[in-house]
Amino acid sequence: MVDLCDERPTDALRVLAESLGARVQTAPGAWLADADVVISAVFGGVALDVAHRALPLMTPGAIYADFTTANPAHMATAAADAATLNVRLVDVAITGGISMTRHKTPLLCAGIGAEDIRALLASVGAPIKAVGDRAGDAATLKLLRSIFTKGVEALAVECLVAAEKKDLRHILYDVLSDVDQTPLPTFLEACVRTHVVHAKRRLAEVQEAKRQLRLDDLEPLVLDGVEALFQRTTDALTASTAPIDNTIEGSLTWLRHQAESPRPPA
User: Fold this and answer.
1) Is residue 122 domain-shared with residue 183, that is, in the same domain?
2) Secondary structure (3-state) at 9
3) Is 182 in the same domain as 134?
4) What is the CATH number of the domain that holds 72?
5) What is the pTM (predicted TM-score) of this model?
């Protein structure tokens, strides 16, 4: 039996339930004991509270699949609580725009039971990948992906607006064509490894690019953050006397230390 739960069910939800032969519920209750799989799709801010209400009502061995955009730490907490009840909590992250790709939107899942959820959703055509048995990792990967994609989006806005103003946008695409000839992991790691070697010189290039934007009466916002990061690396390199391991692991370890270092209050 399928149950759909919403505190304030709409007419559309009731119509959907009728078409599925499902029952409509308005709160977690004894009906959860009949479920092999429970899917939570609530707002991230209430995800942990909903999990705490639902998990004790579930049958041992069942799966609680949390599709919310929740704090990864909350996912881990809920998973630990679920484990004490012998319920398997799976963190499922939606990594695209549902309004555009709908049922073909890529998914990530993590947690004890992730492979079962992957198989279940894959059986109905969902593009889903299991990324491990630690709940919270799927949510974390979604956030990390957002750092990259939203950062690129902002950079594209700033760069293409400037290019369009100069009537150079289409030529710029050709100038940048070498970037997509390199596999993305190779390109990203090359950026990081060479950053700790050439940050000072590249900082000057960033500052020159900012000056050019201002000369064109454009406000640099993304480049302000880029300049601050390159300045932090440059300052750290100037203060450092020890050689830096220029492997990707060594570079990231050194850069992580700079990012974590306490800074004096402004």
Assistant:
1) no
2) coil
3) no
4) 3.40.50.720
5) 0.86
